[in-house]
Amino acid sequence: MTDIVEFLTARLAHDQAEAEAARDAHMGYYATEGDAQWCVSDMGEGVHTEPHGAVVVVGSHGHLNDSVAHHIARHDPARVLAEVKAKRAIVALHMPEFVETINPDGDERSGDVCTLCDEAWPCDTLKLFAAPDYQHPHYQQAWSVNLT
Ligand SMILES: [Zn+2]
Question: Which of 47, 81, 94, 99 is the most exposed place for a label (fewest CB within 10 A)?
Fold first, then answer.
C-alpha cells in the first residue's frame, strides 16, 4: 500500500517531468534558461515565451478564448516547477513521528503524529495536497477531507 508521502512524491515527480518537457519543447536551445515565462500576446494571438518569443499556443480572437490563454500563461512550466519545489518542502515538514502516550486514566495510545501539526498522521495538510488527485488509482479514500 502506498503511503501519502509516496503518493504525493510520485504526483510531484509527474508534474515536474511534464513541466520540464513542456518548457524544453518551447524553449529549444534556450532550454537551460528555465526561468522563461509564458505570456499572452498583446495582440490576442496566443501565448508565447518571454523573453525568447517561442510560440506556445496560437489562436486568434474567437479561436483562443482570452481566459483560456491567460490560464495557460499563468500555469507555465516555470510556475509549475516553482510550485513543485515549494510543495516538496511543505511535504517534508509534515513527517510522521511514532508517539506513545498514557493519559491520566491509564489508557495507552500510540500511533503516528505529524511532527508539525501535532495531529494524527497523515495530517490534513497532506490530505489536502492529495485531494486534487482523488481520481488517481493509488489515491486512498482514507485521505479524503471535507473541503466545504
Ligand atoms: Zn502536518
Answer: 99
What digits encode the pLDDT tens for the residues 28-73?
555 555 567 888 887 767 888 887 777 888 876 667 788 888 898 8
What's the gap in Å between 12 CA and the centre of ligand 1?
Answer: 18
Helix (H) or strand (E) run with residue 56 in it: strand 55-58
Local confidence band at 24 (pLDDT 50, 70, 90 cut-offs): confident
Distance 126 CA to ligand 1 centre (A): 7
* Per-residue 3-state assignment (H helix, E strand, C coil) for 2-42: CCHHHHHHHHHHHHHHHHHHHHHHHHHHHCCCCCCEEEECC
